[in-house]
Amino acid sequence: MSTPDPAPVPAPARRSYAWAWLLLVVALGGAGVYGWMQWQARAEREREAAADAGQRLDAVDNRIDAIRRDQRAQLQRLQQADATNRVLRDELLGLGQRSALIEDTVSRLADPDLHGAQALRLDETELLLSLGQQRLVIAGDLEGARRAYALAGHVLDGIDDPAYLSLRQTLQQERAGLDALGTEPRVKAMAELDALAQSIRITPVEPTAATTPDAPWWRRAFASLIDVRPSDRAIAVQPADRIAAANGLQLEISLARAAAERRDEAGFRTALQRADAWMTRLWPESPMLREQRARLQAIAARPLSLALPTLGSTLQQLRQLRTH
């Protein structure tokens, strides 16, 4: 009996493995491509998110800057409002004080014991006396002071209260003192200086003993050659020197007048002393020179300010009467 041949062993399926590897590679490639695409999409979303976050941060910064500007503006408004409130508070306090003063004045005028019309007259009298004293002391206006005191006397005459009788007598004494002053010393000194300057300008120089008509013939003959003068005095002889000395004398008189204008007694007397020196430079010893120097010394001895012991006594007495 014959044995059947064994079945043939099939060859390995290599083509099936190749397809498996190909499918695996394709799957891996697809997975890689998909992963790369997902990574790119995620990176793009992250960039967009970062850009969006940057824009939001910029918007937040701008908003913060705007809030800060608004805060500064509000702070300035608050400061201005505070300053305005202080000004208004001060004005309100001033109005309150003015109202209190007005109320006090009205109450004083309405008081039957003080007599409103009499209080007004006393106020006017006090004002006129103050003006007269200031005109005399500060400006040296004697006429203005006299007019102010005269007006104060007329106003005071309209008060019938016998309590002010002594005040009228004091005012009359003070007005009599003002009238007795005559001309203001400063104005009088300036006028005498002007008269002295004019007399010096028009007074001729006295001839020397050698040139007088009754001098001996030999003295008149040699007068042009020989000039006899005291050795202790330097008298200007040349025309230019005499013109310079005369100008110096007039300048010192002008300086003395300016000092008298501003009541500078020291400067006034110093300028007149220098003017006296110029006089001795211009003329030799003579009666005319002695007369001019005596006038100059008399002017220098004059006071430039008013001296009135009773000045202000009426005003002081009026204020004392009104305080009681």
**Can you count the beta strands?**
0
Structural class: mainly alpha
Task: Determine the mean pLDDT.
Answer: 77
Bulk shape: elongated
Tell me roughly what share of residues is in helical segments.
Answer: over 70%
Radius of gyration: 58 Å
How far apart are the first and last residues' alpha carbons, in Å?
Answer: 179 Å
Order of helices and strands: HHHHHHHHHH
Which spans of ≥5 residues are poorly predicted at pLDDT below 50?
202-207
Instruction: Please give the count of helices.
Output: 10
Outline the biggest β-sheet: none
- The percent range for strand residues is under 5%
Features:
mainly alpha, 75% helix, 324 residues
Tell me what you see in this structure.
It comes from Lysobacter stagni. This is Uroporphyrinogen-III C-methyltransferase. Keywords: Membrane, Methyltransferase, Transferase, Transmembrane, Transmembrane helix. The chain is an all-alpha fold and 324 residues long. Among the domains are: 112-183 and 309-323; 185-300, no CATH class. It has helices at 14-110, 116-139, 142-157, 165-180, 185-202, 217-221, 239-261, 265-282, 287-300, 313-323. The longest helix has 97 residues, at 14-110. It starts with 13 loop residues before the first helix and ends with a helix.
